[in-house]
Design goal:
- By secondary structure, the protein is an alpha/beta fold.
- It folds into two domains: about 120 residues, Rossmann fold; about 100 residues, Arc Repressor Mutant, subunit A (Orthogonal Bundle), CATH 1.10.10.
- It is about 40% helix and about 20% strand.
- It contains nine helices and eleven strands.
- β8 and β9 form a beta hairpin.
- The termini are far apart.
Length: about 230
Amino acid sequence: MDKKIIAVVEDDASLLENYTEALEKYGYISIGFQTREAAEQSFSKYLPDLVIIDVELNNEPEGGFTLCQYLRSKSTTLPIIFLSARDHKIDITSGFRLGADDYIVKNTSIDLILVRITALFNRLEARFKNENVLNQISEIGRLIIDRPRMQVSWDQKLVNVTVTEFWLLSSLIKKPGVVKSKEELIKEAHLSIDESTITTAIKRIRDKFCIIDSKFDALKTKYSAGYYWEEA
């Protein structure tokens, strides 16, 4: 099996070295960048299998957010993780709204970071095999989920969802009308995020559907219970 390539964008040289060395020891091929410009120049030619980004990059307080937007313009399914010292809720929410699949604070152990990376790759690869849905396309009313291509359509128009958003939707539509708690969604979608992040992800999914259909109302919230998909 080919080794996965992980890019790390971190302006602190010592931290960058620590992260890339840890990834190499774990069996990945790692490449590092200390500036947003250097990263974008490389990504314009070739995308790695996963990207880890710090929010603050040199003299850019939100350079990582800018880079995330750039990457999402090139790929809706590329796994993106923010790894930042900024742990305010507004920063974490911003990261997910811009399309990140995970947001990790820098005091997290390298072992747990590696677990979160593995979880992302598992959702891209192993889950198709585990659930035997390699050729499955689900159609529920105006919604179509194409699992082989990891694409979501509403009214025959593509909805640009991330990997995390894709698997959340896949979990919700298994049983339309059935309320699923945040804990159930995390488990069924094989996610490594906390429950507060589910709230942000659901809102982001709704926003993306509303861009296509201003009257979209199929993704419902059951107060204090969870979320469900209402067939439309």
